[in-house]
Amino acid sequence: MRIVVLVSGTGSNLQAVLDAVAEGTLDVDIAAVGADRPGTLGVQRAAEAGYPTFVVNFRDYAVRSEWNAALTEKVASYSPDIVLSSGFMRIVDEHFINTFEGRYLNTHPALLPSFPGAHGVRDALAYGVKVTGCTVHIADAGVDTGPILAQAAVEVLEDDTEESLHERIKVQERRLLIETLDRISTRGLPAL
Ligand code: GRF
User: Fold this and answer.
1) Whole-structure pTM value
2) Which of 2, 12, 78, 124 is close enough to 132 for a disulfide, judged by CB 3.0 to 4.6 Å?
3) Distance set, CA 108 to CA 85, 120, 152 (Å)
4) Whose C-alpha lies nearest to ligand 1, atom 14?
5) Please, is 165 exposed, middle or buried when counting C-beta atoms within 10 Å of its C-beta (0-12, 13-18, 19+)?
């Protein structure tokens, strides 16, 4: 199973996938890792592990649709079976979604459909929920919407900050991501 991973930031979830592949606990072929901006630690981690990397810089395009088209073309050039958004903080358009329909996965640090968007951890904490978690799902054209593949719950502690809660969520997120990729690589995507 060929995967292209998209990142915008530190890529600690990506690192867990890279480690699982290196250790032989996850049997997938990482075709490339790409970002929407230069200088991400995520791309650096992938390059250090010896994988092809690319940047389709959002700021290089005057029109959003042109960036989307360039990103779609770049990702497609690696012929992925699965495209994984792992902390990729950009909304992609219908052209991208249609090109990778049913094969674009996202991981989100909340129990969707609760708390979608860029601040899922902060929003859950502000609401005062006692349990939150993470979700791996097939992404559609909405913001953190689409069929859910797996979820894990994380208890919110009384003295949690956004950072401490996000760190505990990420521990579960990494496990869930690797389990989900493993399941897809051995059994395929579930029929929807
Ligand atoms: C993850 O919690 C992801 O779900 C969210 O941002 C975080 C990315 O962290 N969208 P990292 O870049 O993998 O460290």
Assistant:
1) 0.95
2) 124
3) 9, 8, 11
4) 12
5) buried
